[in-house]
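Lab notebook: predicted structure, single chain.

Context: the supervisor wants predicted structures on file for every construct in the current expression panel, including those that have not yet been purified. This is the next one on the list. No modifications to the sequence; it matches the entry in the shared construct table.
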Amino acid sequence: MTQGTAGAIQPEGWTARRIRLMHRLAARLATQARPATGFVSQPEPKTIGSFARGKQLCAGNFMFAGYLVEAKTPAGSRALPLWDLPMPAPAFEEALHGFGWLDDLAAVADGPARARAQAWTWDWITRFGRGRGPGWTPELTGRRLIRWINHALFLLNGRERAEADAYFRSLGQQTIFLARRWHTARPGLPRFEALTGLIYAGLALTGMERHVGPAANALAKECASQIDAQGGIPTRNPEELLEVFTLLTWAAAALAEAGRSPQSAHLQAIERIAPTLRALRHSDGGLARFHGGGRGTEGRLDQALASAGVRAVPAEGPAMGYIRLAAGRSTVIVDAARPPMGPRPPMPMPRPWPSS
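Prediction complete. Output recorded below exactly as produced.
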């Protein structure tokens, strides 16, 4: 079963079931492969967390995908049982398995935050590390790998050797799964997440270098096919464009730090997107909210633009179909694109004139 846009539960189609079963099979096969044993190099952490959200997590308030779940710490327990929480919606559970919350706990970075991050991570390995659970999709695996690698020092601090071995074993297994299944991610943001995670893992982990070249090639092809000449994406969601831009800058930086040159299509996509995002930004720093997108994570756009180093200003005319008007501290951003056009209905056959 899947959840529709209005929250209604809809039957899962055969194609979706088949893909899910293939993900599960690939995940279990990956657990039999030779694991990674450590880091070759580790990219500089670039994910930005929220101190306030991290403190809320430590207090037992879990806010994901628009749902709030409150949980109390059991007596004598050092951390809340994250994976035992009631899951109000599939999107809530997916957010947990993507490990974006690890950024928030790392932003707090005190003892209780680290204890929760470690407990929840190793509990995930125990419960889901052998291919079980909803977290074994290419986009969630890519998102999770980026966080685990970014915050490795935060997670491994004070851990026993056996726990570190389990951590690296799981990283290697997830990388192998991603190398086999990234192509099944939907084009757009999900596939960019999968490929960026694969590049991160291939560069960082021992024995995984062979995945970097194919992933970088695939990422360049996705840039050419998904980022149009004006730096826009098919969904026309500004926040989603920011997420894609951020992933591309992370991947480019990781490749450059490892002594590899990002491909021209990859770099050109970054150069096209940067001025478009500047055009879609209000004077308060937030993005225009269209097509389901929000204003963007605080500081994410500034960091991504600084990392990209692209100083191009928005061109005259529409940016991804939007027009920006500004005077002083006031901005108005208008959706001026033509409405989507479906296939034309067939022309009706002319009726014959009645015979006299």
